[in-house]
Amino acid sequence: MSPRILYTTLLIGALAFAGGCTKSEPESSSAQVADAVQSKSPGDKQQAQAAPEPGVDYHSFANTDDFLVKHVDLDLEVHFDRKVIEGEAKLQLERLTDQKNPLVLDTRDLHIESVRAGHGSQLQPVKFTLGKTDPHLGTPLSIELPQNATTVAIRYSTSPDASGVQWLEPQQTAGGDFPFLFTQAQAIHARSFIPLQDSPKVRMTYNATIRTPPELRAVMSANNDPQAAKDGVYEFSMPQPIPSYLIALAVGDLDFKPMGERTGVYAEPELLDAAAAEFEDTESMLEATEKVYGPYRWDRYDLLILPPSFPFGGMENPRLSFITPTVIAGDKSLVALIAHELAHSWSGNLVTNASWRDLWLNEGFTTYLTNRIMQNIYGDERYRMEMALGYDDLEADLADREDRDEIMAIDLRGRDPDDVFSNIPYEKGSLFLYELEQKIGREAFDQFLLDYFNHFSFESITTEDFLAYLQQTLLQQYPQQLDEARIRQWIYEPGIPEGAPHPRSDAFTKLDPLRDQWLGGEIAAADIDTGDWTFHQWKYFLDGMPEKLSESQLRELDSAFGLTDSKNNEIAFSWLMIAVRNDYQPAFARLEDFLTSIGRNKFLRPLYRNLVDSGKQEMAVRIFEEAKAGYHPLTVKVNSRVIYGPDAS
Ligand SMILES: [Zn+2]
Question: Of 426, 452, 584, 608, which residue is the catalytic one?
Fold first, then answer.
């Protein structure tokens, strides 16, 4: 998932975050974490004090030591009227042991109609049972296999409430005439639309036939064909092995526009031109990344622009990143999101975390790469601003978190893996890599990263695999510069090690005296020269405002800078946070429009929390109840807890 979330310390509170790949899209509350701790992992793998075992996936029921799913064939029909996906998943298995029974798969809220198993096309009906449902993990599906069976075909349908599928009514789309569907599988939601081994350590190829209403187009994290006729039957193939959380499907009134030789955009016709213009640098980003970190291994890199209810910034589904439309700002100011999702083509999709404890291997490397891509395409100043904002995010998070959640190799046993999505794996991971770069030099570090991506390509690895690799490479090559104890401190201990780099930007620090002068009444807002300010500077300027501003100060800011009418969603968000806590009524119509038209949790959760904390719960309830039919299930869950308390469901 994706870019800069610019929370002030005030906003962060005790947030945990979840899902999608965008950096730190807020999700669960600390209360949610607390009740998650009560639940138990499968197989009693959890021990009171012992550290989690590297490579063990505490968030899957699958018996991956006995069987590995190597390939999946999907034949699915999408029923918008019933909000159900229905059809067959055929799994090809590799047997790792003599043990023949049972095969255990992950499911969540699936209706299993029948299971057949055998060899090739010689399949016979077999017995299956659904086990006890765990609130975080779903329900294990145990299948009795005939001797030597390597093929299992499962007929099933999804629930209308599937946690990984969102069904949108036509009025929730840009065009307003056709329904829309999209899936979001990370971290453990693939199991809500496909029965499989839903663990990032299992890699599989897949083929799919997707049947839709004939006026709609289906796209997947696979070999999309923009030329494919819109006829309601779409064939896909993903020939590179990927983990289940990268299987993705979207169906809607989608058109395609190329941006470069290997890059293009899928979007509703209404958004297509704006998106293609906003993200026109994608091909250059791709080329720049290849130059340093080796060839792009996935053929095409396209973007899919989702309706505004997408709860995250972006999701790095291979060959087809899913992107929120809220980053179409008209001035490319928020395209770090694209750099981030693209970077995942190396860190995350090519070299993948083996379990959700190892998420920092995905997100820390990706955040580091994002900064480098931004520097390459947009220059040093932008690079420093992105880095400085990332550092501020990290500091804000560290100020509010328990020690155990500041550890990069986080212990997630008994917790919802969505809770891992804080700034820690992203920004602390990136800062760690930046320190390595500083110590051995950029050229040497880039060579290391290139070798690392090649060495582990198409593998899922643990934190300890990374450490062992580091021991054989950099720690031997640079014994004077690097120290294993310090590296272990970065990975296994809370906080930031003393003496770590602290990225700063002059473009920000020069704003501090201006803000102070305005607050002190020495200058008028209208006299501040904001002509060349970037969005980053606006955010920095606004987020640094004191808790309380007077009515006249608010009016002055608004009339000088047109903040209530800002078209940039990040700037609008920062301003609305100020407006809510200062009860600035002229912005409330915009606030209501913002909350009802956007489903991105990064914005919604802090705004709803702010409303509740500033004694405007009634207003929060009224807007939420009006808007929630249009929100993603995850957005509803998270914000219900914010508005109604931790026990709300
Ligand atoms: Zn990411």
Answer: 426
